[in-house]
Structures are given as C-alpha cells and as structure tokens.
C-alpha cells in the first residue's frame, strides 16, 4: 500500500535516534529524545491552500528537521510514518 499526500502535506519517516553517545555511552530507551530529523517519503502536489498558492519546495529523499510534536502518525505495512504540512518543516539538512 502506498501513501499519497494531498495538498501541502508531506509523508516523512523519522530517522532512528543514536543509541550511543560520541564517547561510547549506551543510552537507555527512556533517555533517548524523540528524533526530529526525518526523511521525506512522498510530497503532495501543493496548490491553493487556505486561499494562498503553495509551491512545494521539498522532494522525496530530502532529510529535514520538523517541529517536535507536529503531524499525524500513521502505520502502513508495519512501518511508522508521519504526515505533516510543509509549513511544519523547519529546515532541510544537507
């Protein structure tokens, strides 16, 4: 099954958080922060949203930083994705 976002929405998959620190300390599950870096899986077509023209500036494969608690989490074929608006994406990681 594929997820095809509508309007200015973007489907992202969170990048796994580091399990060890740079100094080699292994983090417990409760000590890990929710990751904010994600990979874009699919992008909606853009268009007119709330009376304003929205041009999509991100593309599948981009790594992005999102707002910490934004979006709607969905599970498809056992994989967790988050659907966010393009405006919830704060930056592209290069």
Please give a handful of descriptors for the protein shown.
94 residues; mainly beta; 6-stranded antiparallel β-sheet
List the helices and strands and how they pair.
Layout: E1 9-14, E2 37-43, E3 47-49, E4 52-54, E5 63-66, E6 72-76, E7 79-85, E8 89-93
Antiparallel strand pairs: 1-2, 1-7, 2-5, 3-4, 5-8, 6-7
Descriptive account of the structure:
With 94 residues, this protein is mainly beta. Helices cover 0% and strands 43% of the residues. It is built from no helices and eight strands. The strands form two sheets. It has a six-stranded antiparallel β-sheet with strand order 6-7-1-2-5-8, with no helix packed on it. A two-stranded antiparallel ribbon has the order 3-4. Strand 3 and strand 4 (52-54) form a beta hairpin.
């Amino acid at each position: 099954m594929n997820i095809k976002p509508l309007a200015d929405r973007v489907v992202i998959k969170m990048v796994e958080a580091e399990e060890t620190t740079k100094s080699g300390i292994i983090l417990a599950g409760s000590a890990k922060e929710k990751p904010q870096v994600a990979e874009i899986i699919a992008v909606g077509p853009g268009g007119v949203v709330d009376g304003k023209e929205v041009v999509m500036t991100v593309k599948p494969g981009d790594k992005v930083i999102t707002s910490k608690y934004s979006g709607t989490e969905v599970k498809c074929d056992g994989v967790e994705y988050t659907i966010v608006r393009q405006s919830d994406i704060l930056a592209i990681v290069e």
